[in-house]
Amino acid sequence: MKPLVIAHRGACGYRPEHTLAAYALAIAQGADFIEPDLVPTRDGVLVARHENDLSDSTDVADRPVFADRHCVKVIDGVEHAGWFSEDFSLDEIKTLRARERLPALRPDNTAYDGRFEVPTFAEILALLKAAETEGRRVGVYPETKHPTYFAHEGRHLDGRPIAQSLPQKVVADLVAAGFTDPARVFLQSFEIESLLELRRTWMPAGGVEFPLVQLIGNPRRGRPRDLAWHLARGGALASVYTDLGECWDDGLGEHTRYGHLLQPAALRWLRTQGIAVLGPSFEALLPDGPDGPVTALVEDARAADLALHPYTLRAELGGEAYGRRLLALGVGAFFIDQPDLGRRLADG
After folding, report:
1. Which InterPro entries does the entry link to (predicted)?
2. Dist. CA 150–CA 311, nearest whole Å
3. How far apart are CA 87 and CA 40, in angstroms?
4. Which residues lie below 8 Å from residue 45, measured CB to CB, with a gap of 6+?
5. Secondary structure, 3-state, 30-44
6. Contact at 8 Å (CB) between 20 and 116?
7. Which of 57, 58, 149, 298 is exposed most, by the fewest CB atoms within 10 A?
8. Buried b (16+ CB within 10 A) or exposed e, 223-255
């Protein structure tokens, strides 16, 4: 079976990311799945942005009418200054226009600055359904961004709690669109609790079942934000994570990092919790380059019956060489910014 080509934020190598134009181009270039990152508006609508900070990916800074929305927030423990999706209604966000977020890497994409709206998740699903009528059955691979922040930590500009469940909203949008074929949906998150909520609560409530993907951040420095939040509150970790802490000697605590989740016992635990896929960076598999030795994670994931969907290949940064090596290792899918290159690689 050919590996799946996942268009990372659409065909973002050629168009500003998370726009309908980027997704449409990805479909035309042969992607098997398109990947939207999802954040909520003030009125609770999911829109596609890499972050809830709109500063780098839209022209919000050039809109005097929104100057008073600029503020400083702490998101996942890091201070950010900018304009944030949760402080804008959908109608207001629809007045903004997308910009290339990485102009130094992709200067040609700046020619499209100002042309495209910020799409809703519902509009993305409608695009996929329209493509299906033309013979292209493409799936969707959404990521819920900062679910702990939006559910528990975050505040609107006026100080009110945001208190929005992204796992609940993504399932609701999929069900409302009738986009419920489990062969065409993967749900991914860097946060463990978000995936556990999907499996235990929101997918059963919606009458659906989709494969879940545990994304892996920096193994040494990064850790799931949900775990940090529960630790800070002093809550009973076992009520959320059951026996995860028994997968290594020192249990769950401030020391726990993503690297702990890569230990064989933890990989097996993820599988018992209904996680079907592990999403590490490609560097976690090939830390010394595309021709270097492979880490034990490839075999450990296979032994735990977890598929590997590494992120993110970029043509400008050796993506083709890395892609060929990843395919030789037998990964089930890969994220790429240039879906046409991904298609050529997957087709051999």
Report:
1. GP_PDE_dom, PLC-like_Pdiesterase_TIM-brl
2. 24
3. 9
4. 90, 120, 121, 122
5. CCCEEECEEEECCCC
6. yes
7. 298
8. bbbbbbbbeeeeeebeebbeebbebbeeebeee
* Tokens standing for residue 335: 């994220």
Question: pTM (2 decimals)?
Answer: 0.97
Low-confidence ranges of the chain (pLDDT < 50): none
- List, for residues 172-216, the tens digit of each pLDDT value: 999 999 999 999 999 999 999 999 999 999 999 999 999 999 999
Cα separation, 263 vs 296, in Å, equals: 10
| CATH at residue 298 | 3.20.20.190
Q: Is residue 81 part of a domain?
A: no
Distance CA 61, CA 69 (A): 10
Residue 59 lies in a domain: no
Helix 339-347 and helix 319-329: axis angle, to 10°? 40
The total number of structural domains that make up the chain: 1
Whether the CA torsion 106, 108, 110, 116 is positive or negative: it is negative
Beta bridge partners of 6: 33, 335
State which amino acid sits at residue 142. P
Distance CA 181, CA 139 (A): 9
Q: Is residue 86 part of a domain?
A: no
**Among candidates 31, 35, 78, which has minimal Cα distance to 170?**
35
- CB-based burial label for 66 (10 Å; 0-12, 13-18, 19+): middle
Asked if 112 contacts 100 with a C-beta cutoff of 8 angstroms, the reply is yes
